[in-house]
Amino acid sequence: MLDLIIGGASSFAASVAASPAAGNISASVQAASGNPGMPWWIWPLLLFAVTFVMGIIAVLAGVGGGVLFVPIVGSFFPFHLDFVRGAGLVVALAGALAAGPGLLKANLANLRLALPVALIASTFSIVGAFLGLALPTNITQTALGITITLIALLFIFSKNSEYPSVGGRDALSKKLGIGGTYYEASAGKTVDWTVWRTPQGFLMFTFIGTVAGMFGLGAGWANVPVLNLLMGAPLKIAVGSSKFLLSITDTSAAWIYINQGAVMPIIAVPSVLGIMLGSLVGVRLLAGAKPKAVRYLVIIMLLFAGLRSLLKGLGIWG
User: Fold this and answer.
1) Where are the domains of the chain?
2) What b/e string do you get for 145-174 counting C-beta neighbours within 10 Å, with b at 16 or more?
3) How far apart are CA 259 and CA 121, in angstroms?
4) What does each of the 318 residues of the chain score in pLDDT, given as a tens digit?
5) Nearest to 64 by CA among 76, 55, 72
6) 0.85 cut: is pTM over it?
7) Three-state secondary-structure class, residue 167
8) Least crowded by CB within 10 Å, which of 96, 135, 242, 261?
9) Helix, strand, coil tally for the chain in percent (to 5)
10) Which of 210, 271, 258 is nearest to 8 (CA)?
């Protein structure tokens, strides 16, 4: 994986340097940044560094890299928001693909839980992607900000989300065999878990898939609360399974943005390389992280992304 990432970075740098369009890239980036004296390649390097950190945080919080990528890059980098939204889904997809094998190996992601959810969410994310490209940006950002902020508040006022109590397995979770065990390294014990309220959870993922495709942010910001607070999966299982299923759900919506020409390589390529390297580091840190620390990180990330999108949608910030 590391050799693939390094090789991809080298190929990208060589192709851009040799391309006759490099001058056009330089002119457009400099004009957009308002700093004609700054070399164009500074922005891809900064993107790589910033997305590397995002990759680590995204795995620990169980969110797609896009939920951090779009607010931060959209605010501090000189790129049009449509291209940032398109790259955000590609970034979230790349981070999930990099983290998935490690999460499955550590039993922190569960296939029986993730696959039915991914099928539902990915189907409706296609509908959401078309809606997102059709609606005005300020409307989608305002709606997104309100939704994520409310979810963060739900996390703050909920209790025992690290190991939620399950009232009893429903018929659907029994038929699908959803459940398992994992080793909690921070407590030195093995945790047995299962889920309940499965039909209600699956219904919620029809909404999550639509909204995720609409905003171009991936669905990690909503996956974790539904899997943890509604269905009763332990927080680490919710985080790990959320990160894994993003590798499926984000693919559908990402193709819509690519087909509409809303993915620019100068933004997407360095961001993907950074997010994949960061995700590999994040997987190693997740196994030993304390559940309470993960919970606080989830809350902080949701509040930041929600308030940022709300303020920008209202025209107050950016």
Assistant:
1) 2-17+37-313
2) bebbbebbeebeeeeebbbbebeebbebbe
3) 20
4) 445 444 444 443 444 444 344 445 555 455 444 455 567 788 889 999 998 988 887 777 666 666 678 777 877 787 877 788 788 878 877 777 777 888 888 888 888 998 898 889 888 888 888 887 787 877 877 877 887 788 778 777 766 566 777 777 889 999 999 988 888 877 778 888 889 999 999 999 998 888 777 766 656 667 888 898 889 888 888 888 887 887 777 677 778 878 888 788 888 899 989 988 888 888 888 777 776 777 777 778 778 877 877 887 788 765
5) 55
6) no
7) coil
8) 261
9) 75, 5, 20
10) 271
Nearest to 234 by CA among 67, 98, 113, 121: 113
| Alpha-carbon span 257 to 270, nearest angstrom | 18
Place of tokens 């308030």: 307
Contact between 151 and 217 under an 8 Å Cβ cutoff? The reply is: no
Classified as helix, coil or strand, 314 is coil
Which residue has 């939920």 as its token pair?
Answer: 67
First to last CA, the chain: 37
**Other Cβ atoms within 10 Å of 104 Cβ, number:** 16
Which SS3 state, helix, strand or coil, does residue 190 take? strand
